[in-house]
Every structure is written in structure tokens, then in C-alpha cells.
Structure prediction request, 579 residues.
Amino acid sequence: MEWEAVIGLEIHAQLATKSKIFSGASTAFGAEPNTQACAVDLALPGTLPVFNEEALRMAVKFGLAVDAEIGRKSVFDRKNYFYPDLPKGYQTSQLFHPIVGIGHIDITLEDGTNKRIGVTRAHLEEDAGKSLHDEFPGMTGIDLNRAGTPLLEIVSEPDMRSAEEAVAYVRKIHSIVTSLGICDGNMAEGSFRCDCNVSIRPKGQEEFGPRTETKNINSFRFIEKAILGEIDRQIDLVEDGGQVIQATRLYDADKNETRSMRSKEEANDYRYFPCPDLLPIVIDEDYIEAVRATLPELPDARKARFINEYKLSEYDAMVLSGDHHTADYFETVANAASDAKIAANWVMGELSKMLNQNDTHIKDSPVTAEQLGGLLERIKDDTISGKIAKQVFEVMWSDGGSADEIIEAKGLKQVTDSGAIEKIVDEVIANNSAQVDQYINAEPDKRGKMIGFFMGQVMKASQGKANPGQVQGMLKQKLDALVS
Amino acid sequence: MSLDRTDVDKIAHLARLQIEEQDTPEYAQNLSNILDLVDQMQAIDTTDVSPMAHPLDAVQRLRSDLITEENQRENLQSVAPAVENGLFLVPKVIE
Prediction:
């Protein structure tokens, strides 16, 4: 039987506020345990929450970016459950009246097709603390620094049909929240996490099968692997006569499999009700329009502009606009070098290769966009060849310095003096008489290819510094003169 | 509406309350009385009344995004039953 997967995603994006959603404690990552957990975060008796206006503004920004209805009146609810990482005994969340209603985004798949994915809602809530289970025998250590960090939970429609679509959706949401500056997007630190709801059904069937939810996956690669694995698991199960049980599963990255965490049948009854400690949040048209006016250029618009303004291919534009740090970097390089094509090639080629090798994000690149732009300028004005530029780039990466400084210090300036080039060309012709004879005796249409050998010799002899265009012209002229 | 023992046990479990078995019938009776009162209120026609999120007809005031809290860990942990390396210790929670 042919099966179809149905995938819906819940993304938790930590909002990049300085202080917590309901208290004035810092949200900075990596502090000593419990040094950023105040009386409100600890739920000491008598404390009351006060809502952070920046968290509201950020949520509205997101809503506008995904073309969603903004809740004019949104309400906080209590989601009741007992777990020590949440000392209040409930999580303050929004169930009935979320801040962001129905919206949508468009994703582009590898084959170039576009698909619209619905965003059901996005609501504000507080993060919980962290539990450390392994350090103390018989006890669990609790760090409440993260408790009360504002989260935007973004819930999708079950519109995705493959792991590829799901990853494209997550990447797009990631790109939107980071471009908006409302989330740092750091998946390794847990600022951006994803729960995947997966079910299967026979192709053509309308109703959904029972779904499983895989929690807290924190890398794009794991999302893909977890979904692929879960789809296979469910198909195998059903084809062997079993049944998918609605359950929460955990993804184990080491084993690349999901395992059951708890079954939903014995699920908690969260007993949601409006939080009596918080009043409804009411916003008006003026507020929404004021926020709209602060929206930056969003990834889709930027991609379109890259195609129009810089004449980039669809693919290059997509890669370069996907992350706003990359997009900013590319634009700076392109403007410095006054050449978008070469800038795109270098950002996606050499730079990206070095960043990957060194596991560095482009925002921390040791070679700045200005430095790289300066280097590309020197290729454009024939000071150096593309090949030498790669050497300069490597020096730039490890030791710093501008292109001009490195070219000067290492004596890498391209030789364009035709006298000097001619001298090398003559030597190469004189030292390779066998190849010269072959050239002379070859069919005329084969000779073009054979020049490559001499080119290689000349470039080697000049340590890569001879201007390749000049060398080529001179070789052809001199060799052809020998033919007659 | 009346609750039986199992309802009371379930509610107690969700609320993490330990109750004595001999008290269960009384709790069931008391809780049922409350629900009866709710039933009585449900009889009122509220078709044209929109639900309130809060008994006060007021709007949430917002706070500026400023860090106003200092580290008070020592103070706050002085009342905790068990603390180690800056962490609160609780009986082992296993998922």
C-alpha cells in the first residue's frame, strides 16, 4: 500500500528579550545556576507577574511577518501540571485567545516548487527551568535560570507531507524569527526547538491516522532524521498488523531512533483556565501599525531583490537570503567588490568552506565582509588571479590583514609586465620540445586543448603570478608561429 | 451532579494531594455540593453575555524590558531544604 505522511510542527522560539516574560530577572544564557531566578520565577508566595512589553512587540512582529491575524485581545491561561522545573505548578501560556492567529508562510522545495504551509497560531508562554538528573544520586538538581524566559510557540497546520517539507518549513520560520531579531535562533543552546507531530495514512484517505509527537529536537538534521525514522517505524508497525498509539516520543540522536516517553492516554489533564494574576492584553490598530513600520526586509522579499538587483540565480538567492547574517555579509561584499556574481561565488564557495571546516558561524567569521570585498576587488582589477586570491584568503583567515597588505607582504602581485611574461613563455617553449612537436603535428582543432599544458608550466614557473589571459594569448601566438 | 470515589482520587492525584481513604466520601460529598451550585448557576441564560477573562474589566499594564533583579541566590536558597552547587535538589524525577 502507498502511504502518505502527515506532519505538523510546534516550534518554541525563545524571544530575545533582556528580561523575563513576567519578571525583571535576566535571560542571558550560561549564567551560574539560579543566579538569574528571582522570587517571581521561584513562585514565592505573594509574588505577582508583570508582563514584558517587548515580548508582546516581538510576538506581534512575528504575526505580521506571517500575514496572521493579530489578537486584539489576548489572554494568558494557566496550564496546570506538576514538575519541579516549574515551581508555580502551572505554566502561564495562552490557549483560548492567543496573540497570533491564523497565518501562513511559503516554502521552496529542492526541485524549485513552492508550497504554502498554514500557521495555525502562535502564542506567548514562559519557559521552564532545567533538570539535571545524573549528577546527584537519588536526587534531581534544578536550575531555574531559564524559568520565565519568554517563548513564542508557533504551531503549524498539518500541511506537510514529507521530512523535506518539514525541514524547509522549520528553516523558513528560523529565517523569519532571526531576520526579525526576535530570536537568536541558536538551536544548540535551545533557543529554537521543535516538536514534530507525525502520522501516516493510506494515500488518498481523508482522515488522519493516530499521531505521535517527538519532542524538543534541536537541529535541522535531527528533525529530518527523526521524521524519516518515525514515518518508517509507523509504516512497518501498521504493515505488520500493529497500530500506532498516540504517544509522546523522544528522539535519541545517538541511536537515530525515537522512543516512547509517555502515552497520551494517561496524559495529564492540564485544566487550563484564565490566569487570574494577569489581565487581558488589549492592543489597537495604531499599535499594530507602529510595529508594522519597524519590520525589516523579510527573507522572501530579500530573495526577490537579490534576483532582481544582483541578477542572482534562484538557488543562489535562496541560499544567500536564508539567513540574515549571510545576506548582510553577501551584500557588503557585493557592494565592496561591485560584482555580485563573484561575491556570491566566494561567499558560497571559499568562505562557506572555511566556515564549515572551522565550525564557525558567518557572523563570527574572522574574515570580515569588507576584507573579502577588498580581496575580490583585486581579482577584478587583475592585481591577482583567482588562484592567488585563495592563498591570500587563507592568510587573511589565519593572520588577518587587508588584501593589499597581504599581497604586498607576500609579493603575490600578478605579473602583467609582458616582457617578464614573454621570458617565461620562451623558456617553457624551449624546455618542452617534445610537447611543442606534438602541438605542431596535431590537428588544428586539438591545439586549443594542448595549450593547457604550456599554461600550467608557465603558471608554475611564475608561481601563479603571471596574468593568465596574457599568458594564454602569448602562448598561442608563439606556438602558432612555429606551426607554419 | 455527584462525584464518586474514583473522581476524588483522580483529582487528588492531579493536584498531588495525599488524602486518607476514610475522608474520601466526605470530600466527594463536599465537592458534589460545589458542583451542584455550579449547576444552579449554569441554569442562568447567558447567551448574550461574552465570557470574561478576569472579574475586573481592566487591561494588563506592561513592564519595560529592563533587568531589575539582582542575583539573590544565597538569600533565596537559604529556605530550600536541599541545595548543592547552586542547584535546588528535589527527589529524583524520572520520565
Q: What stands out?
A: The CA atoms of residues 38 and 89 of chain B lie 41 Å apart. The radius of gyration of chain B is 22 Å. The mean pLDDT of chain B is 90. The longest strand of chain B covers residues 87-91.
